[in-house]
Design goal:
Blueprint: H1 5-8, H2 14-37, H3 46-67, H4 78-85, H5 118-139
Helix pairs in contact: 2-3, 3-4, 3-5
Length: 142
């Protein structure tokens, strides 16, 4: 789907703005939970920390698509969402977010789970914050 330049700069209506704010609110909750989990005194579930970091990034990307009124498939693939977002922003600074995609599935289900280290969880949070910052700038919400 190719967008015309005029469509890229349309001012979204109040309903769209409310939806975007809801996506961002949910993303912020995920990021807050990810950070909070690191404060657990023992047995921090780093896999869930990484999962919530992935969810934060995913929801920020979807908020951008909602803002621009671009339909997106039901997916947890950061790669796929970045492909769609590439029609409206330069995604070069966000490609490292692709490392988050596996945390959407493999960290939640027995048999699929992979151990996530503290370092990987911290990196997932850093990348989620990178996505948050870049998308917030695009939405003028930073």
């Amino acid at each position: 789907m190719r967008l015309r330049k005029a469509e890229l700069f349309m001012v979204p209506g109040e309903e769209i703005i409310l939806k975007v704010k809801k996506w961002i609110s949910y993303a912020e909750e995920d990021l807050s939970l990810a950070k909070h989990s690191l404060g657990l005194e023992s047995n921090c579930p780093f896999r869930l920390t990484a999962y919530h970091a992935q969810q934060c990034a995913e929801k920020y990307l979807k908020a951008l698509l909602v803002f621009h009124q671009i339909d997106f498939p039901y997916t947890h693939s950061i790669t796929r969402l970045l492909e769609i977002c590439s029609e409206i922003i330069n995604i070069n600074e966000l490609t490292e977010a692709e490392i988050l995609t596996p945390y959407a599935i493999t960290t939640r289900y027995p048999g699929e789970d992979e151990e996530v280290t503290k370092e990987e969880a911290l990196e997932a949070i850093r990348v989620a914050e990178l996505v948050k910052g870049k998308i917030s700038l695009q939405l003028k919400l930073a």
